């Protein structure tokens, strides 16, 4: 306890410079803890949104009165989700029953027929696009509160209807399930976010906090060595150092938590592109607060103890004239296995043997990323010293020679300045790989958009209205035909009811279509093996006319119609073509789907979906190739990755500024000595720039190479089609050059015009 009190007294009474350094440590710790708190808050935000989604899902639980299986006592619910751009637009149609009526979350009462309750964001959208109200039959009566919304930007509506209007409604007795049907981010995507944030934020954050804890390391080491020579024990010296570092870290942690609260209140109300949350969702759990309050001081204790070990063991080795020990070669140890794993995956991808064991890859890839990142940090002093020695031998430049000799003697000084920027460039490569993988998942490369609508319970007038929607390329009807008993293998097939002109309107090439007789369809894009029907097989096609039903017998002909479909998406999936003229007049297929085809640009897709809703708001539309929930997740993941990159940029720049300022203070006596010996200011500035730029350039080259290899290996393990992407290399090189320029410009002000001989009086 005496040593801890001594450390606090030295902190408060050791001059203005020491107090300024303490404030820098506190400020650096606050920035780091604020970034850490935001990363820890992300799972809580996602869990809170999923919990509200689960709480509003209609469910039917029998209470002994068989409400879920019979009668009209239970209420009816029908959920329809359509894409609005890349966001889901959800409508919940509700109808009362004769029994108890549950209240939807976010509303005060169950909606009556003709009443519509919308989310605040949907209310604003309806003002800009009145045509969207066709999907909401009724009059708007109020807004849904935050309790019933997953996030503030959600497009959500409750629509009250009569029981007879909900043809496909399901019985319900309550709102709330134990899980969300469509979570904000799937567990697999969340693993990608965790993996990326670990490399982009947490790894640079650990380095940044270590840099903050090691401010004025040389001066503090000499002070601790003096205490050791005065008789303080080794552990006592370490406690004295810990009192200062832990106090700064703890104060920084408290300040950082306060800063996060302010940031959460502001950013949650402004929102991020594609991702918004309520301020209460961003509240930190007790576990996260404990990690921040304990983790930062624990790291400071470890770093402070490690820094004080040399001064406590051999105090004479930290004197000003002592020669620093060269960096140990074990710093290369993490880099070798990390690059080995990354290179192995790259070789597997290049040879066409991409790994199929995703479980093993999910363990090895994060391990390789961490090992390579750690190896870049630990190997930089050794590589910098070797390079500095070689350059100092052959260079004829005074500035470069002085800089390289300084780096050779003190390779760790430049390490603190360059580490943050090196890790930032390395992390940018990882994020680029994740974005490439997400782009493969979400990109729609087809020139057309296909919609499927069930014709069951749809009138002939509604069908004609759907077929006449403006903006459609064409339409066809596909119906399920059941196999007859003489078929050996097939149980059923899909028949296409269309004319040749209809087929030509929806596929690129319809072949030699004649249109007046039954033909077998063969998709040339995939070949004949995709057609399950064989010539001569018999099928039954069910037709209906009012209450009259009949079967039409079909025999698969030997004549084929060969056509080409769209790449990546199929407009036709039928095996046989039936001309509409061959069907009985007035009869319609009993179990058929209407396939609509339009252009794939967002405006046309939005217009077609709105027009379908205008015909019947409760129609279930299946847009092929559009997974609105997946698109929403991709937007959220991209936003989180962008936030991670911003945090990584803040941490990297902060690490550079803190380390550069600290290094400038430590080097004042050396710069003053050189100035008194006659060195010109521009020579000293050139020395300072070279001292930082040369080791930084070495680290950035390693970061670009290792980051590109890590990106490619990640894409190999992701199972996508793209393993090698050269488009991102210029961006990485530009980032590296930008980091060099920033470091060079930041080194110029470290040499001032005023010479203070007092700085070298003690030497």
What is this structure, in a nutshell?
With 763 residues, the protein is α+β, with helices and mostly antiparallel strands.
Structure notes:
- This protein is of the alpha+beta class and 763 residues long.
- Helix content is 52%, strand content 14%.
- The protein contains 18 helices and 19 strands.
- The chain has helices spanning 2-13, 16-55, 120-128, 187-213, 217-229, 234-270, 286-313, 335-350, 358-394, 398-409, 411-442, 460-467, 500-506, 602-615, 628-666, 668-676, 681-718, 729-747; strands at residues 58-59, 75-84, 87-95, 115-118, 139-143, 155-160, 170-172, 174-175, 448-454, 472-483, 492-497, 519-523, 538-545, 548-555, 560-563, 576-578, 588-589, 592-599, 621-624.
- Strands 9, 10, 11, 12, 13, 14, 15, 16, 17, 18 and 19 form an 11-stranded mixed beta sheet that branches. It has a 6-stranded mixed beta sheet with strand order 5-4-6-3-2-7.
- A hairpin with a 2-residue loop joins β13 and β14 (548-555).
- α2 (16-55) runs antiparallel to α15 (628-666), α10 packs across α17 and α17 packs antiparallel against α18.
- The radius of gyration is 35 Å and the shape is elongated.
- 42% of the residues are buried.
Total helical segments? 18
The helical percent reads 40-55%
Show unreliable segments: none
Strand content: 5-15%
What's the Cα radius of gyration? 35 Å
* Strands, count: 19
The main sheet comes to: 11 strands, mixed
Which characteristics define this entry?
elongated, alpha+beta, 18 helices, 763 residues
Summarize the SSE layout with pairings:
Elements: H1 2-13, H2 16-55, E1 58-59, E2 75-84, E3 87-95, E4 115-118, H3 120-128, E5 139-143, E6 155-160, E7 170-172, E8 174-175, H4 187-213, H5 217-229, H6 234-270, H7 286-313, H8 335-350, H9 358-394, H10 398-409, H11 411-442, E9 448-454, H12 460-467, E10 472-483, E11 492-497, H13 500-506, E12 519-523, E13 538-545, E14 548-555, E15 560-563, E16 576-578, E17 588-589, E18 592-599, H14 602-615, E19 621-624, H15 628-666, H16 668-676, H17 681-718, H18 729-747
Parallel strand pairs: 3-6, 4-5, 11-16, 12-15
Antiparallel strand pairs: 1-8, 2-3, 2-7, 4-6, 9-18, 9-19, 10-11, 10-13, 10-18, 12-16, 13-14, 13-17
Helix pairs in contact: 1-6, 2-4, 2-6, 2-7, 2-15, 4-7, 4-9, 4-11, 4-15, 5-6, 5-7, 6-7, 8-9, 8-17, 9-10, 9-11, 9-17, 10-11, 10-17, 11-15, 11-17, 11-18, 17-18
């Amino acid at each position: 306890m005496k040593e801890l009190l001594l450390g606090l007294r030295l902190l408060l009474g050791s001059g203005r410079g020491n107090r300024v350094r303490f404030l820098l440590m506190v400020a650096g710790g606050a920035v780091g803890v604020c970034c850490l708190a935001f990363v820890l808050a992300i799972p809580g935000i996602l869990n809170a949104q999923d919990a509200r989604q689960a709480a509003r899902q209609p469910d039917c639980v029998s209470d002994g009165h068989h409400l879920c299986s019979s009668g009209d006592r239970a209420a009816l619910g029908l959920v329809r989700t359509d894409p609005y751009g890349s966001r889901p637009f959800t409508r919940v149609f509700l109808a009362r029953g004769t029994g108890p009526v549950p209240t939807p979350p976010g509303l005060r009462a169950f909606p009556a027929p003709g009443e519509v309750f919308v989310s605040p964001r949907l209310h604003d959208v309806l003002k800009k696009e009145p045509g969207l109200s066709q999907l909401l039959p009724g009059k708007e009566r109020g807004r849904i509160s935050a309790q019933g919304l997953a996030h503030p930007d959600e497009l959500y509506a409750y629509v009250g209807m009569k029981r007879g209007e909900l043809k496909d409604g399901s019985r319900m007795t309550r709102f709330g399930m134990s899980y969300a049907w469509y979570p904000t981010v799937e567990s697999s995507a969340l693993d990608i976010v965790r993996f990326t944030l670990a490399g982009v934020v947490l790894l640079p954050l650990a380095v940044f906090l270590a840099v903050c804890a090691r401010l004025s390391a040389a001066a503090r080491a000499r002070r601790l060595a003096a205490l050791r020579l005065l008789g303080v024990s080794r552990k006592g010296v370490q406690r004295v150092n810990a009192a200062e570092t832990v106090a700064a870290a703890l104060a920084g942690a408290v300040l950082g938590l306060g800063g996060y609260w302010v940031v959460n209140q502001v950013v949650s109300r402004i929102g991020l592109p594609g991702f918004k949350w309520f301020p209460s969702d961003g509240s930190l759990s007790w576990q996260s607060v404990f990690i921040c309050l304990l983790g930062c001081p624990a790291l400071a204790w470890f770093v402070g103890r490690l820094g004080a070990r040399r001064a406590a063991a051999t105090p004479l080795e930290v004197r000003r004239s002592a020669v620093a020990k060269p960096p140990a070669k074990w710093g290369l140890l993490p880099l070798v296995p990390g690059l080995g794993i990354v290179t192995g995956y790259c070789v597997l991808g290049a040879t066409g043997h991409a790994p199929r064991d995703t479980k093993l890859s999910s363990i090895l890839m994060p391990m390789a990323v961490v090992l390579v990142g750690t190896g870049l940090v630990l190997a930089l002093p050794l590589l910098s010293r070797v390079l500095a020695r070689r350059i100092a031998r052959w260079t004829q430049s005074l500035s470069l020679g002085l800089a390289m000799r300084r780096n050779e003697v003190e390779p760790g000084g430049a390490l603190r300045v360059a580490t943050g920027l090196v890790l930032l460039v390395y992390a940018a490569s990882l994020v680029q790989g994740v974005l490439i993988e997400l782009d493969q998942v979400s990109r729609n490369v087809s020139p057309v958009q296909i919609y499927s609508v069930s014709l069951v319970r749809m009138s002939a007038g509604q069908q004609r209205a759907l077929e006449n929607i403006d903006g459609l390329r064409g339409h066809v009807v596909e119906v399920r035909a059941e196999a007859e008993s003489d078929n050996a293998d097939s149980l059923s097939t899909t028949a296409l009811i269309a004319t040749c002109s209809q087929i030509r309107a929806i596929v690129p090439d319809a072949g030699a279509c004649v249109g007046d007789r039954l033909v077998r369809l063969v998709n040339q894009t995939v070949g004949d093996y995709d057609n399950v029907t064989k010539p001569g097989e018999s099928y039954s096609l069910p037709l209906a006319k009012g209450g009259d039903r009949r079967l039409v017998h079909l025999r698969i002909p030997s004549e084929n119609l060969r056509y080409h479909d769209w790449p990546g998406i199929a407009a036709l999936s039928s095996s046989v073509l039936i001309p509409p003229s061959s069907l009985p007049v007035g009869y319609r297929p009993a179990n058929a789907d209407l396939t609509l085809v339009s252009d794939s640009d967002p405006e046309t897709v939005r217009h077609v979906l709105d027009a379908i809703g205008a015909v019947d708001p409760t129609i279930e539309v299946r847009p092929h190739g559009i997974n609105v929930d997946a698109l929403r997740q991709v937007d959220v993941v991209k936003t989180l990755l962008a936030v991670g990159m911003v945090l990584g940029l803040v941490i990297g720049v902060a690490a550079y500024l803190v380390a550069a300022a600290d290094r400038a203070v430590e080097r004042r006596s050396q710069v003053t000595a050189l100035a008194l010996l006659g060195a010109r200011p521009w020579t000293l500035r050139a020395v300072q720039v070279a001292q930082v730029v040369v080791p930084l350039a070495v680290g950035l080259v390693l970061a670009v190479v290792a980051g590109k290899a890590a990106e490619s290996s990640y894409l190999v393990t992701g199972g996508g089609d793209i393993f090698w992407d050269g488009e991102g290399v210029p961006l990485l090189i530009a980032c590296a050059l930008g980091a060099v320029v920033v470091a060079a410009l930041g080194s110029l002000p470290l040499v001032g015009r005023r010479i203070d001989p007092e700085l070298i009086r003690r030497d």
